[in-house]
Amino acid sequence: MSEDERPSDIGDGSAENGSDAAGDPEPATDGGVETDDVDEVVLDPWGAASVSDYRKLFEEFGIGEFDDVLADVPNPHYLMRRGVIFGQRDYRPVMDALREGEEAAVLSGFMPTGDPHIGHKLVFDEIIWHQEQGADAYGLIADLEAHAARGLSWDEIDEHARDYLLSLLALGFDPEEGDLYRQSTNRDVQDLAFELGVEANFSELGAIYGFDGETDVSHMQSVVTQMADILYPQLDEPKPTVIPVGPDQDPHVRLARDLASRMRYFGVTKAYASFETDEEELALLRHAYENRDAYADDPDQPRCSEAAQWLVAEQLTASAMGAAAFHDRDDLDSLVDSVETTLENAGMEPLRPRTRIVNRRGDDAAFEALIEAIDGEKRVFEGHVDAFDLDRETAEELARQVEVDQGGYGFLAPSSIYHRFMTGLTGGKMSSSIPASHISLLDDPEDGYDKVKAATTGGRETAELQRELGGEADECPVYELYAYLLAGDDDEFATRVYEECVGGERLCGDCKEQAAQLMREFLADHQEKRDEVEELLDAADIELESPRRG
């Protein structure tokens, strides 16, 4: 969840007009971590960040396209409008809350392993934009992670942490309306991490992160602490919360969503009879109920035994059920046999749709309070309640409110948005170990100018070819600087640069000169603002020196 020295992605090579090195690596234009297997995408929160095909993130990891929700985002940030923010996971509750003026939160963290750079600015901007739209904003220093996963000393962490916070404030974060903290001194986060750790185990962390017998226990603890960070904005009350990150941090988001569910007192599902079912069995019962006219003596009250006989005689197919999960006949036949037996045992019990609220972690008092809160027809069992007059959404909100009233968390699953990685200025990956590949927010403005001037581009080999064929802006780290940073909120300017490039009107030398000047101006202005917010940082409610120094 924290953004460390990994920047953010795309790039190529450049001479005065175009490419200066035919052997330069191909740019990474898409999200995840590249491997030797071009068909494999691995998301590693501590690995080298690069992605060759963002589409695979949609297909393999269930990340949704941001374009699916963009039209409904109030006053979208330019990073959203330009596709730099390309993905989302369950962002709609946050978006709806912002539009309706309801409670929402944004949180992201920074692992202070070096200078903040222009890749980190993407996350700074996303936090600040959400704060400006009315969300409660949280910025954290992931110092426990930096110490455990990167081995930094507390002295080094303190030095870098101050720089991250100054840049966040200089870019517009309001510390009076937001919350800044560091993991190592936030006792609430540490206490929550302890509780979340009860619901996580080593096998699970090993499967997600590749941890093995050589992994430090502190490294594993830092993961659970990050889960607590993600859920921290909901400690006082449940609220839609978004975590802006690069796609390499998605494993953290998925685990946090899972743990949020496990911490809930109650789970809400659909059901059709008093017995328990899994998702595949539920799909079969739904199919039987929807076809009750074909077999029930009284379609208004079909019996389980009737449904059992029909299922056996029907010779169902997966396509008829709309169930793509069944890949072969044996799977489906085995499922039908299992459900048929269960239905026969239920006998004359009516097959009726109902909303089931299952008691997962609630004590007796909480379960009794839940039963009392459900109006209308209901049936109470040892570990669950079946409500016949509640839809699922209403039941979920009711269960959450009872949980909170009974001292539980009532966590909502956290949402996330994902931005593209920035390409290194020298092509390939942006890396803190290659100074020429990235621009630090602390770089001397003249050094920033020089780095842009020396950057590779997506230009052609000669000016003549550039004019004839146009440049390859989509593979150019210099154009990326315009789109991600230098054009600011001016979409018309960013579009003009792009169209002039691909149309052959803009040559790389002039383009880089303009970008270099804009970068010099940005760094000078940013560093002046950093000086201006020094007093704001000193007055902020965050420990700037770790008590763990040494």
Automatic annotation (TrEMBL):
What GO CC terms are in its UniProt record?
cytoplasm
Q: Where is this region: Disordered?
A: 1-37
Instruction: List this protein's GO terms for biological process.
Output: tryptophanyl-tRNA aminoacylation
Enzyme nomenclature, EC number: 6.1.1.2
Spell out the molecular function terms from Gene Ontology: ATP binding; tryptophan-tRNA ligase activity
Q: Write down the superkingdom of origin.
A: Archaea
Motif 'HIGH' region per record, residues: 112-120
Annotated InterPro entries = aa-tRNA-synth_Ic, Rossmann-like_a/b/a_fold, Trp-tRNA-ligase, Tryptophan-tRNA-ligase_arc
Give compartment(s).
Cytoplasm
What catalytic activity is recorded? tRNA(Trp) + L-tryptophan + ATP = L-tryptophyl-tRNA(Trp) + AMP + diphosphate + H(+)
For this UniProt record, the keywords arranged alphabetically read as follows: Aminoacyl-tRNA synthetase, ATP-binding, Cytoplasm, Ligase, Nucleotide-binding, Protein biosynthesis
Q: What does this protein do?
A: Catalyzes the attachment of tryptophan to tRNA(Trp).
Q: Which NCBIfam families match?
A: PRK12285.1-3, PRK12285.1-5
Q: Which PANTHER family match?
A: TRYPTOPHAN--TRNA LIGASE, TRYPTOPHANYL-TRNA SYNTHETASE
Q: Which HAMAP family match?
A: Trp_tRNA_synth_A (MF_00140_A)
The similarity comment for this entry is: Belongs to the class-I aminoacyl-tRNA synthetase family.
What protein does this entry describe?
Tryptophan--tRNA ligase
What's the source species' lineage? Archaea, Methanobacteriati, Methanobacteriota, Stenosarchaea group, Halobacteria
Encoding gene per record:
trpS
